[in-house]
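Researcher: Next sequence.
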Amino acid sequence: MADKISTRSVTTTTQERSVGEEERKLEREFRAAPKLNKSPAHGLWALTNRDLVKWYKNPIQLIISLVQPIVWLGLFGKALNFGSFISSSVPPAQQSGVYIHFFGVSSYFSFLSAGMLSFIILFTAAFAGMSVVWDRRFGFMNKALSTPVGRGAIVIAKVLQSVIRSLIQAGIVLIIAILLGMDTSHMNVVTIVGSFAILFLMSFGLSSLFVMLALRSSDWQTQMAIINLLNLPLVFASNALLPITIMPAWLQTVVRFNPVSYANDATRQLLLGSTLQLAPLWVDFSVLIGFAAVLAGLGIVLSWKLLSK
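Model: Next structure:
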């Protein structure tokens, strides 16, 4: 009997040692394994980079997004030759003064080129909300909501990927405009950086707006209807295509409440030295900073209420 008890005791001790060694082995492996990075910045960049990878791995999407502003520059900008009207009634020595009087710059093409930067920003930002719709329809949104990443970070990631895409496309449009004849006499590193700072603020605000409108939507047709409803008024009720001075009084009032107008005004002052100003440069920056901050804040607050599995 004593021998049996001793044998059982030895067996139990051996099993306990084996279990203890396995536990220590698992603990060592757990400590050696890379730890989950739960920092907000890491989650924010992971979600942002996910959308950017889908974009730059599909160059056709980039090319198609650039077709519309290039058509406006190459066809509308060159076809609408105000010089033919001006030259018929104004001596050549005075033609430059007439352009500056009506457009604030030396040519209509330069005036339009600066407006096309806001144009490409607006249309790229408008589709930031579509990413939310597709993620919800294909189930990725539920997975993202199950991670430690905050709901506000999910919204900001959608905004940031749109902002990065917008600025890259605006840079390409600017290069094309210069090749087609845009005035470069006022351009330098400071003015270009300042212009892209303005475009960043505009893109951040507009992307926040369209993402906010798509937070509860899973129907791409509804989102497309919203895009079509807002895009054209934001373009045509601004100074993107024509100066505010030739518009009727009621439309001038609408233009002054449109943030796109202040982005156009600032880029023309910086890139072209425009004398036809909607507001001083510091006012343009202030309006767009407030626009971006308010809409980004609203998007984060609404994400806490509207984003759900």
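Model: The two ends are 63 Å apart (CA to CA). The CA atoms of residues 120 and 169 lie 7 Å apart.
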